[in-house]
Write a structure and sequence with these properties.
globular, mainly alpha, single chain, 6 helices
């Protein structure tokens, strides 16, 4: 996916990223509703590609819009939040699946995921943030 993204001109990186990451919610929803092999393979590929588009779009938006002197702090806080939240969510899944049923927990999770992505897509800053024009660093006269 990274090779594809190198060739595609992404004018609105946050918008493309949020649309891409929405496929992860669809895949979780599909896993809870009808976990058949071929449809899940397609959804998993779309979710993986969408997650990669999000990661590239998010990184691109940060690098172009955050001052270089503050970028490492922003990345640190972003990654720290993710690395804390991911295992907590994973720990919570087992007991909830045992209590409510794994399919129900997956369906609710997929719906909640999409319910979080949808309002972000309606956010004007996410929709309108465009790429910074590329400045040439080549020196003339050589």
């Amino acid at each position: 996916m990274t090779l594809v993204m190198l060739r595609l001109p992404v004018r609105r990186p946050l918008l493309a990223g949020m649309v891409g990451v929405g496929f992860l919610g669809v895949a979780v929803l599909g896993l809870g509703l009808e976990p058949r092999v071929v449809p899940m393979m397609v959804l998993a590929i779309l979710a993986g590609a969408g997650t990669e588009v999000f990661d590239i779009g998010w990184s691109l938006a940060l690098q172009e819009n955050v001052e270089e002197s503050k970028l490492s702090r922003v990345y640190f806080n972003d990654r720290l939040g993710s690395f804390v939240a991911i295992p907590l969510g994973q720990i919570a899944y087992g007991p909830r699946g045992e209590t409510f049923g794994y399919s129900d927990v997956l369906v609710v999770s997929g719906v909640v995921y999409l319910a979080v992505v949808a309002p972000v897509l309606t956010s004007r800053p996410v929709r309108t943030l465009t790429r910074t024009p590329v400045r040439s660093t080549a020196r003339s006269g050589r």
